[in-house]
Amino acid sequence: MPPIGVGVIGSGFMGLTYSEVIARHAQGCHLVAIASGRNASVLAQDYGVAAEATVDALLARDDIHAVVLATPDLSRLELTQKAAAAGKHVLAEKPMAPTVAECDAMIAACAAAKVNLAVVKTERYRKITRKAKELIDAGALGPVQMLRTVSAFPLPLSRQLFAERGWMSDPRGGGLFMGMASHNTDFLRWLTGRNAVKVFAHATTYSDIPGPPLSVMAQIVFEDNIMAHMWITGELPNPSLPSSEVRFQVFGRDGMLDLENFEYLDATQGDKWERIYTPERFDYLKEPKSPIRLFPHIGVIQEFIDSVHEQRPPRVGGTEGRAAVELCEACLISARTGEAVTLPL
Length: 345
What we know:
Helices cover 37% and strands 26% of the residues. The chain is an alpha/beta fold. It has two domains: 4-122 and 294-314, NAD(P)-binding Rossmann-like Domain (Rossmann fold, 3-Layer(aba) Sandwich); 126-284 and 325-342, 2-Layer Sandwich (Dihydrodipicolinate Reductase, domain 2). The protein has a nine-stranded mixed beta sheet. Strands 3-2-1-4-5-6 form a six-stranded parallel beta sheet, with helices on both faces. β9 and β10 form a beta hairpin. The radius of gyration is 20 Å and the shape is globular.
């Protein structure tokens, strides 16, 4: 079967990430061209592929069969509609879009064009998170009853991110909250295997950074009366909280898990805590092409490419991406109205 020709739209840090994965790690595909963003020409030159002047020019290429959208979330709907109209399969970065309505339009566009729509959910592809999922599914904790998750960054880091990425302040987008929380909401759904049915949240911004709220606390009820608490913030003073970048705790009838993506997976064994898994370390900024860092992204790309080759829906498709956005949007609606929000929206 001939390899899938892939175009990358977006040339920032994630554009580099997916270009590296497609060019040097994933099987059954090859990188054809890159478009959009101030680094597109340099990135294309680094990988020896074409730098297209416009997205339309990239989508017009017959040797491109699929595209990766490594772009701000507020542009995803338009790009997905264009790609679908051109007959290209689509892998969209997270969050899928800023609103459920836009997610629905993306799903409809790809369904009408009979192309695959997949959404990046790296939490499902890390070695450490898969180990946690295996323990839960094997019944090591008994029935899951409660969960807690926090993603907390220091305010100086948020200021740096907003200075480098002006689109994060755009009120039309999901901002830092949805960029972070779309990981947490998807992971809560994946770990429990349940849909959320009710959300009550408060959202605010304590700093002077404009745009969507930077601090959100939410109570979430899932099917089967499973309770979860989610805290997302980018406004803590330095040095932030230890082990809080992507932290999940799961409490079952018979046992508990404590997980930090980049540090540890602990679980109770009888009446004691034990270290179950310690992930390999890497420097996120100094080693962007580290195979350790790229491992979950390779999984995301490979599953997308395999779904195209096998002519089947992707395992993490538009429905899953939409559900994560729906939970995030429900948090913002609840915060705005002061009322609990029932799901589905």
